[in-house]
From TrEMBL:
Signal peptide: none annotated. It holds the Pfam family OCD_Mu_crystall. This is Ornithine cyclodeaminase family protein. It comes from the Bacteria. GO terms for cellular component: cytoplasm. It comes from Elongatibacter sediminis. PANTHER family: KETIMINE REDUCTASE MU-CRYSTALLIN (PTHR13812).
């Protein structure tokens, strides 16, 4: 028999913060960069209907004594059941026995984890005086990205591009409490003159053109997480220095897959893991003129590190419940 702690999303909402997500993800990046953690090939599947899809990301972190997996699902018709289309569940295994020790409802947590990754990249790679943020996309994750970046840089203006009037109206309501001027623009207007650019879309065609991006900009590309997805044109990648959460994955299913296929990026070894930069900041931005691109394709160790931190907090505060398997 094994005892499993169940931490529901309601409890996660009480304990997760930008700060504790940032620290947990930073530890995950460093564990990967120092070869103290391992991620396994991502598995994709479908439900009973072909439009219902899910992915499984798994990993093991010897530094954090953490083993487990995340199941991310997309069931587009969930609205008829009053459920969100996107679901996320993390299962932590007891590293000594392999039996489940915790199950966490992670949809809300996933937004903080993903945004924390890009906040770390901005913190270590964007110019210190970067103040104009250009965002491509206006979904739930875009809101998380804006708030996370605003926590690490003093933003003076935010420009957001979306093709949907409905999404623009929704985003305007969500950002009503932010004391930073924001506007909705074309993709070109969002990018031109921006010091920080975040792309948060499921696009399979380049949206950000190289000629729009000024010298000295930092780009966080986080939409590409499977074969065929692309948000940046390869000319932009060719102008930039390359960073990633996991270089080998970035050239396989991340934003860098296209530049790699075109021979612009000769090998994954030429991409710097972000965790190496957090340990040695001199490996990051070299001057105020270079363009830096961080490819955030998402890795299981990020999920597991954040989940472990949330599990410890939940236990400290008496949140969640336990069941016997």
């Amino acid at each position: 028999m094994s005892t499993v702690t169940v931490v529901p999303e309601s409890a996660i909402r009480e304990i997760v913060t930008r700060e504790n997500a940032y620290e947990a993800v930073k530890k995950a990046f460093e564990a990967i960069a120092e070869d103290r953690a391992e991620v396994f090939p991502v598995t994709f599947g479908t439900g009973l209907a072909p439009q219902d899809v899910f992915g499984v990301k798994a990993g093991a972190d010897s530094a954090g004594a953490t083993v487990g997996l995340k199941i991310g699902s997309y069931w587009p018709d969930n609205g008829q059941h009053d459920l969100p289309a996107h679901g996320s569940t993390i299962i932590l295994l007891d590293p000594d026995t392999g039996f489940p020790m915790a199950i966490l409802g992670a949809a809300y947590l996933n937004g903080f984890r993903t945004a924390a990754a890009n906040a770390i990249a901005v913190d270590y790679l964007a110019r210190k005086d970067a103040s104009v943020l250009g965002v491509i996309g206006a979904g739930h994750q875009a809101e998380h990205e804006i708030r996370a970046v605003a926590a690490v840089r003093a933003l003076s203006r935010i420009r957001i591009h979306t093709r949907s009037t409905g999404r623009a109206e929704w985003m305007a309501r969500q950002l009503d409490d932010i004391d930073i001027p924001f506007e909705f623009t074309s993709a070109q207007q969002a990018v031109e003159g921006a010091d920080i650019i975040a792309t948060v879309t499921p696009s399979t065609q380049p949206i950000v053109r190289s000629e729009w991006v000024a010298a000295g900009a930092h780009v966080c590309a986080m939409g590409a997480d499977s074969k065929g997805k692309q948000e940046l044109d390869t000319d932009l990648v060719a102008r930039a220095r390359w960073f990633a959460d996991l270089p080998a994955q970035s050239v396989a299913i991340g934003e860098f897959q296209h530049a790699f296929a075109a021979g612009i990026i000769p090998s994954a070894d030429t991409i710097c893991p972000l965790g190496r930069v957090t340990r040695q900041p001199d490996l990051g931005r070299r001057d105020d003129e270079e363009i830096t691109v961080f490819d955030s394709s998402g890795i299981a160790i990020q999920d597991l590190s954040v989940a472990r931190a949330m599990l410890e907090l939940a236990r400290e505060r008496g949140l969640g419940s336990t069941v016997e398997l």
